[in-house]
Amino acid sequence: xxxxxxxxxxEFGKAVAFGLAAIAAFFGVVLKSRADGRxxxxxxxxxxxxxxxxxxxxxxxxIQNVPADERRKRLAGWVPDDKR
Length: 84
Fold this sequence. Notes:
The protein has 84 residues and is mainly α.
């Protein structure tokens, strides 16, 4: 430990310490930006999922409010003719 302190007392030791601190700061910034990017992408996917859920709920509500015969006619178009 004493050797480290004596090395830090020299110009070379100070330069090495400064270089290591700069490298550590650089990697800190890189890791922070990656975490921010992940969070941003997660938020974008959550918003898309919520929008899809809202659209599906609106569609389900619309279908639910249609009379049974009309609903059957509308939904029949989604089934291929060879499957009926």
